[in-house]
Amino acid sequence: MIEIVAYHDHFKDAFKALNQWWIEKYFKMEKMDYQSLDHPKEYILDKGGHILFALLNKEPVGVCALIPTSLQGYDYELAKMGVSPKAQGKGIGLLLGQAILEKAKSSGAKKIYLESSTVLGPAIFLYKKLGFKEVLGIPSPYSRCNIQMELEL
């Protein structure tokens, strides 16, 4: 059974681990990764953001964050989404994506953006399934970013 729950301090290590594995598999950790993954409370939650976890048999196997942004026209960035390799293919990414977008709506958000890489084909497919559309011209702090997307809620 998959359960979606909000961040709790005892999930801090899982937040980093679930993201670090995919970042290091395809890219390299960057300064912005360390800031948010090492300090999720200060970097995301204390600024009005949200982090949700997918639990499978009470074990964190997926995570997704909403980070408030000062980027004009957007309320949040959907970020730090990862699903453990042992739990992929079970629809966990879709459940997390739907839950985090509901959280955004209930927080009054009107528009969300995200940054990704086309190397992550399944992620891009998921974002499109959630309704995101490609957008151009937003500066990114990540060298791995080669696609940006937005969603009007």
From TrEMBL:
CDD domains, A to Z: NAT_SF
Domain N-acetyltransferase: 13-153
Record-linked Gene3D superfamilies: 3.40.630.30
UniProt KW keywords: Transferase
Pfam families documented for this protein: Acetyltransf_1 (PF00583)
PANTHER family the record matches: GNAT FAMILY N-ACETYLTRANSFERASE (PTHR13947), LD18367P (PTHR13947:SF37)
UniProt name for this protein: GNAT family N-acetyltransferase
Lineage: Bacteria, Pseudomonadati, Bacteroidota, Flavobacteriia, Flavobacteriales
